[in-house]
Amino acid sequence: MAKIVFGMAVPHSGMLGQAPEDWLTNGERDRKNPELWFRNQTWTYPELEAERGAAFEPYLTIEERTERASRCRAALDEMAEAYARADVDVAIILGKDQKEIWPDMSPSIAIYSGEDVHNGPPQRAVYAPDHHVVHQCHPKLATHLMETFQREGFDLCDLQAWPENVWMERQMKQKADYPVVPHAYSFVYHQIMKEDVPPHVPVLFNLFYPPTQPSMARCIEFGRVLRDAIEAWPEDVRVAVIASGGLSHFVNDEEFDRRVMKMLADYDYDGLSAIPDGYYQSGTSEVKIYSIVMMALQQTGAQMTLVDYVPCWRTAAGTGEGMGFMYWDPARQTAEAPAAEAPTA
Q1: Gap between the Cα atoms of 330 and 332, Å rounded
Q2: pLDDT tens-digit profile of 256-301?
Q3: 3-state secondary structure labels for all residues of the chain
Q4: What is the pLDDT of residues 89-109, one digit of tens each?
C-alpha cells in the first residue's frame, strides 16, 4: 500500500527570485492596490499607512534586505535537501490558479488527471529553467483520488488538459507554444525538485477569489480524505504531500504568522478553523492548504520542522510577504522536534 513519508509547505513568491536591490519596486504595486487585506478587512495603502505608520522603515535598508534574502535562499536549499532525503516515488502538489489559466472562472477545487505538465520560458527564472521541460503526472492516482473525494461528498472539477497560460501573454507580453503551468507548481518543480519531478498529481484550489473559496474547515476535511485515499492506493510507493503558498501577504502580519505556525506545529485544527475567514484572504489564503499537509502527516507522528521564518518587507507601512519554510518528515521527527519554535525575525 502507498505510504505518506513527507510533507512540506513552501512559499513561492517572486521576491525569492529577485535581487534584494529590487524588492522595493514591488511596493509600488502595493501602493496602488485599493484592497490590501489585513486582519479581517481591506485597506487602501494610505489607510494602512495611517494605521501602522512607518514602523517598518528600518527593515527596508539594503543591509536588511540582503540579510533576509540570504536567509530565504539558505532555507530553500535546506527544504530541497529535505525533500531529496525523503526519496519519494509520487507527489501530491497542492496549489492554486491566480487567473493564470482561468481568467473567467474559479473552480473551488480541481484535480489534474492529464498525462503531463509543461514548464519553461517565458516563465520567470525563479520558477523555471531556460528551456522547455515536460514532467510526468499520474492520471490513475488522480482518478482514484477523485473517486474517493466524490464518495466523501466533495464535488470536484476534473481538469483533463492544462489550459493556455494567458497570464504570460497578458502580463509578460510573451506566449509559449505549450501550456506553462501556474507559478505555484513551477516553483516546486524548479526550486524544490530541481526539475527531477516524480509522477505526481497537481491539485488546484480557488484560494483568492470569492465566493467559491473552500473554507479552512473544508481544507482540513480535504486533508483527511486525501490521507485516507493515498493510504488506500494499492501500489507500494512513498508519497509526499506538498503545499505551495505563503503565509501573510501582501500585508505582512508577523503576529498572525507566528500564531498560525504554532497551530500548525501543534496540529491545532480547531484553532485554525476559528480564525475569521477575513484573515484568509488575498495571498494569506494560501495558509489554508498548509492544513491539508498537517492532516495528511499527523498520524505518521511527524513533528513540524520550521527551517526559518523570514518576514520580507517592501514598504514602510509593512506590505511584503511572510516567508515560512516548514516540512514534516517522520523519519527525522526526534532530531527535528525542537525546530518547531519559530526563529526571531
Answers
A1: 5
A2: 999 999 999 999 999 999 999 999 999 999 999 999 999 999 999 9
A3: CCEEEEEEEECCCHHHHCCHHHHHHHHHHHHHCCCEEECCEEECHHHHHHHHCCCCHHHHCHHHHHHHHHHHHHHHHHHHHHHHHHCCCEEEEEEECCCCCCCCCCCCEEEECCCEEEECCCCCCCCCCCCCEEEEECHHHHHHHHHHHHHCCCCCEEECCCCCCHHHHHHHCCCCCCCECCHHHHHHHHHHCCCCCCCEEEEEECCCCCCCCCCHHHHHHHHHHHHHHHHHCCCCCEEEEEEECCCCEEECCHHHHHHHHHHHHHCCHHHHHHCCHHHCCHHHHHHHHHHHHHHHHHCCCCCEEEEEEEEEECCCCCEEEEEEEEEECHHHHHHHHHHHCCCCC
A4: 999 999 999 999 999 999 999
Single out the residue of 294, 216, 284, 289 nearest to residue 256, CA to CA.
284
Tell me the pLDDT of the chain averaged across its residues.
95
Q: Which residues of 108-118 are buried (b: 16+ CB within 10 A; e: fewer)?
A: bbbbbbeeebb
Can you tell me the mean pLDDT for 173-183?
92
Locus of grid cell 536549499: 77
Q: What sign has the CA pseudo-torsion 268, 327, 11, 207?
A: negative
* All cell numbers assigned to 148: 474517493
Q: Considering only CA atoms, which of 313, 69, 289 is closest in space to residue 188?
A: 289
Per-residue model confidence (pLDDT) at position 345: 53
* Domains of the chain listed by start with CATH number: 3-339 (3.40.830.10)
Measured in residues, the chain has a length of 345
Examine residue 325 and say whether the peptide bond preceding it is cis (omega within 30 degrees of 0). Answer: no
